[in-house]
Design brief:
Layout lengths: L3 H20 L6 H21 L1
Helix pairs in contact: 1-2
């Protein structure tokens, strides 16, 4: 079964990353901070599902 939560997080991360690349946003921007938060959420979710 597809993990929709994980797919949603990864999709949002890809969108934010593309926006950052197009606009040339610096590391401390809101979008970059959100990407870092999403990375943590993805890692936590994968660790939880693996056991």
């Amino acid at each position: 079964m597809a993990d929709l939560y994980l797919k949603n997080l990864e999709s949002e991360r890809r969108q934010l990353w593309a926006t950052c690349r197009l606009k040339g946003l610096p590391r401390g921007s809101e979008e970059r901070l959100r990407i870092a938060a999403i990375d943590e959420a993805i890692a936590a979710h994968k660790a939880k599902t693996r056991g």
